[in-house]
Design goal:
The protein has 240 residues and is α/β, with parallel strands linked by helices. The protein contains six helices and six strands; from the N terminus they run ββααβαβαβααβ. A six-stranded mixed beta sheet has the order 5-4-1-2-3-6, sandwiched between helices. Strand 4, helix 4 and strand 5 form a beta-alpha-beta unit. The protein is globular.
Length: 240
């Protein structure tokens, strides 16, 4: 890249599902949607128009948990909006079975492992040619401390000691950020699939729609360079 050319700023919108060590859920999923910062407002307007078209209240949050027979067509169009916009990309890291984790063997805590998985998620979305801001849905009262640590880990890994490349890692309320909501839906698809949840025909239909649009089975890692739907299924060392 010509040094005189301004670096494009990308926003990365993140969500997590079943990330706690003892939450009774087998699979853990971290997901992120990347978007050039100069188009995120347009994407927000398109989502607003979709809500209007399908009689969804403007303030109603788009969430995986809200997928139902009554909202299925709307969520299909949300998925189509994502896949039809070339500038958007998605990456997810899946830990299929948290009970298989042996933190003591690797002299780590679950929090240590959690940050390693965040690094796995984000490091392929961050390069040396652009600038990045990372937005993470607030999950608990310790968000600020966790995100400060995550920013430090990412900057150290990318030798970005002055934060000129990874400008910030910020906590947001998903209710206010439509692209975090899209990350929630795509992450929810994978969480539902890997946890083997049964009983919702609407959610299963939406999973099949994502499979069709991505042309992926969604149950295995994609090639590392995949951009539109990049999936890394983490396995314990030594497991095939």
């Amino acid at each position: 890249m010509n040094s005189a050319t301004p670096a494009t700023l990308y926003n990365i919108y993140c969500d997590e599902s079943c990330h706690l060590e003892h939450d009774g859920q087998k699979a853990m999923v971290l997901g992120a949607v990347s978007c050039p910062a100069d188009i995120h407002k347009r994407i927000g307007r398109e989502i607003k128009e979709l809500k209007k078209r399908f009689n969804i209240l403007p303030g109603r949050e788009i969430k995986w948990t809200q997928v139902s027979p009554a909202t299925l067509d709307f969520y299909r169009h949300v998925i189509d909006l994502y896949f039809d916009e070339p500038a958007l990309g998605f990456r997810a890291v899946v830990v299929p079975d948290k009970t298989a984790l042996d933190h003591d063997h690797f002299n780590q805590s679950h929090d240590d492992f959690y940050y390693k998985m965040w690094w796995q998620l984000l490091t392929r979305l961050i390069d040396d040619q652009h600038q990045f801001r990372v937005f993470v849905d607030i999950k608990d009262t310790h968000s600020a401390e966790k995100l400060s640590k995550l920013h430090e880990v990412l900057c150290n890994a990318h030798y970005d000691f002055d934060n000129s490349r990874i400008n910030s890692v910020e906590a947001v309320h998903s209710h206010d950020v439509p692209l975090v909501q899209i990350a929630d839906v795509l992450t929810g698809v994978l969480s539902h699939l890997f946890r083997g949840v049964q009983g919702s025909a609407a959610k299963q239909t939406l999973i099949e729609h994502v499979r069709a649009r991505s042309r992926l089975t969604l149950d295995r890692s994609t090639p590392p360079g995949a951009r539109k739907f990049n999936l890394f299924v983490w396995r314990p060392r030594g497991e095939a």
